[in-house]
Every structure is written in structure tokens, then in C-alpha cells.
Amino acid sequence: MSRDLIDSMSAEYRRYKNLGEGALAQATDEELSRISSPDDNSLATIVWHIAGNLKSRFTDFETTDGEKPWRHRDEEFEARRVSRDELLTKWNSGWAVLQSALAALDDSRLHDTVFVRGVEFKVHEALHRSLAHFSSFVLSYGLLDFGQLFRFQLIHRSHARSVSSLLIYFERLLSSHS
Questions:
Q1: Residue 150: beta bridge partners?
Q2: Helix (H, G, I), strand (E, B), or coil: what is residue 115?
Q3: What is the domain extent for residue 32?
Q4: Is residue 54 within 8 Å of 106, Cβ to Cβ?
Q5: So what's the pLDDT on residue 172?
Q6: What is the pTM of this model?
Q7: How far apart are CA 54 and CA 127, in angstroms?
Q8: How high is the mean pLDDT of the chain?
Q9: Is 174 exposed, middle or buried (0-12, 13-18, 19+ CB in 10 A)?
């Protein structure tokens, strides 16, 4: 069976994983738990949310709803102080579940049906939605260096800024510095 599309999506997930890890590596241990205002999320909070989301969505991906009853989403957004090792352990735990689910797929299953919060999606739709969600958080805490360091956190608990706005912003930013 062909895996061209699954491999392409897997590569895109890995690209954002690497960007996220690069950003985390640039943050000091203190910055991992820092919030700049009550409506912002710390890097630790974002990592907890990403890991929780990946575990929930991709555990038994094709056979159970992507919003698992054991997930406590609101707790992911609670303020926390964590060590770098704890943060990376959490980050990698979510990634391991995603990578396992992707390894089990091939392109013939892209039109199979999965559910997230009771809503029916094709596998390819669920993967694209997850990738967009994940990339928006990675981009929200990206630490980009174009001769000077830009530090920002744009995503708030309310998800006030849309993924498309973020992607357009970054595409413009990247093209103006290439």
C-alpha cells in the first residue's frame, strides 16, 4: 500500500515538532513556566495542551472518539511550574502516540471515518485539523531569529487569533526575511 500522503503529513508534523523543540531549547528554564499576562499561556501550558490533545486524538485513533473520557482538557490550561525534563517528557509522550498512529496508517485509509467529540471526519480531515491546531500553538511560541530575536505568544485561552491569520502572518514574515 502507498504511504505517500501519510508520509507527507508525518513529515509536516515532524517539521513543526522540530520547530517547537527549537523554540523550547531557546527558552530559559524560568521562561518555560512564565506568563506575561493573565490571559496568556506559558510554554509549559501549551506543551501540556499539545500532549493532551495528541494523546486523546490518536490513542485508538480509528476505533474510538478522539475526545477521550480520561482527558481533562481544562487541567491542561492550569498554571504550572515544571522542570525542562518534565516538560520534554510530557511533549514526547504526546508525540509517541501520534507517531504510533501514523505508522499504522497507509493512504488507502485516508477516506475512512473517525470521530472527534462525536463529529464524523474522514481520516485525512482529522489529520489536517490536528496539524493546523498543533502548528498554531508551535507558531504561537516560536522564537525566530532573523538577526534579532522575536519572542511572542499570540494564542490565548480563547484562541482569539485564528490559525489562518497566524499562518498568513508567518508566511509574510518568513518571505520578507528570506
A1: 144
A2: strand
A3: 4-176
A4: no
A5: 54
A6: 0.79
A7: 11
A8: 81
A9: exposed
